[in-house]
Design brief:
It is a single chain. This protein is of the alpha+beta class and about 220 residues long. It folds into 2 domains: about 5-45 and about 125-215, Outer membrane lipoprotein wza domain like (Outer membrane lipoprotein wza fold like, Roll), CATH 3.10.560.10; about 55-125, wza like domain (wza like fold, 2-Layer Sandwich), CATH 3.30.1950. The chain contains 5 helices and 10 strands. It has helices spanning about 5-35, 45-50, 95-110, 150-155, 200-220; strands at about 60-65, 70-75, 80-85, 90, 120-125, 130, 140, 165-170, 180, 195. Helix 1 (about 5-35) packs antiparallel against helix 5 (about 200-220). The longest helix has about 35 residues, at about 5-35. It is elongated. About 20% of the residues are buried.
Length: about 220
């Protein structure tokens, strides 16, 4: 065997060894992720939306009965406030619509309106987000009764690399992701960040492909 062939063989074995190590590492990572994944949780109940806490990006409809000029539709600003006629800014972030009703009622009753009757409704919820292995990741408007299948469909469907059996979700304001089964019927809520993970098979190919190509390019002499 001449020197060129020996060198080619050595390079091929080195590339093959690197591919094997990469595959082993990827499989170990996939196993660790499966073993360490948080427990699958059931779908959140409708009460999660009934007790919805307002935040920036929401749009409210405020009705003051008998005082049409004091009501209307108002956006929650980046600081979590709405600016209302007569009473000015009202902090709403972190409160439910019912709690905001009480706050607005108290402010109006303080020298503005005699025995005010107020109703506050969420006219438009803040958007949710779909990231990872979908064809059109990004921000989308929330629709009532949305689940993960609806969310993925809105985001253009799964890519070929996607794991379709489950997904990760970070509820608005929560710094931690929770794993949910795709067949659990899990609901999506305003502000949620949904992440679709990629299959370990594609992770392995993403490493093995370039290494194999390198070996092929360096082989002939």
């Amino acid at each position: 065997m001449n020197t060129a062939r020996i060198l080619t063989f050595i390079r091929f074995m080195a590339a093959a060894g690197a591919i094997a190590l990469a595959c082993s590492a990827m499989m170990a990572r996939a196993h660790a992720q499966t073993a360490d994944a948080p427990p699958i949780v059931a779908a959140a109940s409708q009460s999660a939306l009934d007790n919805y806490q307002l935040g920036p990006g929401d749009k409210l409809r405020v009705i003051v009965y008998g005082e049409d000029d004091l009501g209307g539709t108002f956006d929650v600003d980046g600081g979590g406030f709405v600016s209302l006629p007569l009473i000015g800014q009202v902090k709403v972030a972190g409160y439910t619509a019912h709690q905001v009703e009480g706050a607005v009622t108290n402010k109006l009753a303080d020298g503005f309106v005699n025995q005010p009757r107020v109703n506050v409704q969420v006219q438009q919820y803040r958007p949710f987000y779909v990231l990872g292995e979908v064809n059109k990741p990004g921000e989308y408007p929330y629709v009532n009764e949305m689940n993960v299948s609806n969310a993925v469909a809105v985001a253009g469907g799964y890519t070929l690399k996607a794991i379709e059996s489950g997904f990760y979700v970070r509820r608005n304001g929560d710094p931690h992701e929770v794993y949910m089964s795709a067949d659990s019927g899990a609901k999506i809520y305003p502000g949620d960040i949904v992440r679709i993970d990629s299959s370990p098979f594609w992770d392995i190919l993403s490493v093995a492909g370039p290494l194999a190509g390198f070996a092929a390019l360096r082989g002939p002499y």
